[in-house]
Amino acid sequence: MEEKENYGFCPACGANLPENSTFCPECGHRIGDEQSYSQQPGAGYGYGYATDRSPMTRLQGKLLVAFIFVLIYGIMSIFGGLSLLTINDAFVDQLDQMLQDAGQGTFEEFMSSMGYNMTKSEFIEMCRVSAVVSLVSGALCIAANVFMYKHTKRIIATVLVAIAALVNFGTVTYSGFFSVFLNVVIGLIMAYLVYASSDSFKD
User: Fold this and answer.
1) pTM tops 0.90, yes or no
2) Residues 42 and 79 in one domain
3) Residues 21 and 34: beta-carbon distance below 8 Å
4) What does each of the 203 residues of the chain score in pLDDT, given as a tens digit?
5) Is 165 helix (H, G, I), strand (E, B) or coil?
6) How high is the pLDDT of residue 33?
7) In this structure, are 85 and 31 located in the same domain?
8) Which among 74, 138, 189, 197 has most CB atoms closer than 10 A?
9) Cβ–Cβ < 8 Å for 187, 159
């Protein structure tokens, strides 16, 4: 087998470098930053991975905060959306019977006492709309997390997080303006943290 010509090793991951390399083809480390790299505690030539905390190879700082929050929100949204999809006529009828057996009145009376004046069919429609919004928002967040984890496509990751936050306005009729507005604001803050983490992305 013909061996590849070796023009040096990447100081971040130890991979062979092609001739006249500007970036490492394996981890994206900028060649020529060795001086700043070597001054970091624990930096050195590795065996396919970096031992430092280079932003090109590890989540840290603002990006780490955004990654954790977006991941948790994405997982919760997907599970919440799937749970809402299970609510149907049979479920509501069973709940209605349970409320009457407990002396709490009918389902519609119970919803009215909670501040929601809606019929069973309107309640089911609300659940379906909320489920779709949750699933879409969660899927966008998970997609953004993939880009954050790979440290690539910063603008796309930012846009995905922002859209995931803004789609929550689709449930403002049912959830109330304040709670939706709060979710949107937090989501947009996370989008800004992703956008502001340019040093952690290869592109």
Assistant:
1) no
2) no
3) no
4) 444 455 577 777 777 777 777 777 777 777 765 444 444 444 444 444 444 445 444 678 889 999 999 999 999 999 999 999 998 888 888 888 888 888 878 888 888 887 778 788 888 888 899 999 999 999 999 999 999 999 999 999 999 999 999 999 888 777 778 888 998 999 999 999 999 998 888 87
5) helix
6) 54
7) no
8) 197
9) no
**Token pair recorded at residue 195:** 């956008």
Say how far apart CA 109 and CA 159 lie, in whole Å: 42
End-to-end CA distance of the chain: 34
**Same structural domain, 11 and 53:** yes
Query: Angle at the Cα of 89 (from 83 to 92), degrees rounded to 5?
Result: 70
Q: What is the CA radius of gyration of the chain?
A: 25
Task: Check whether residue 139 and residue 158 sit in a common domain.
Answer: yes
Give the residues across from 23 on adjacent strands: 30
- DSSP label at residue 40: S
Same domain, 17 and 79: no
Quote the strand ranges of 16-166, DSSP E. Answer: none
Q: Say how far apart CA 146 and CA 150 lie, in whole Å.
A: 6
User: Taking a C-beta distance cutoff of 8 angstroms, is the pair 73, 85 a contact?
Assistant: no
The amino acid sitting at 45 is Y
How many independent structural domains does the chain possess? 2
49: which DSSP letter?
Answer: S
Closest C-alpha to 54, from 14, 22, 6: 14
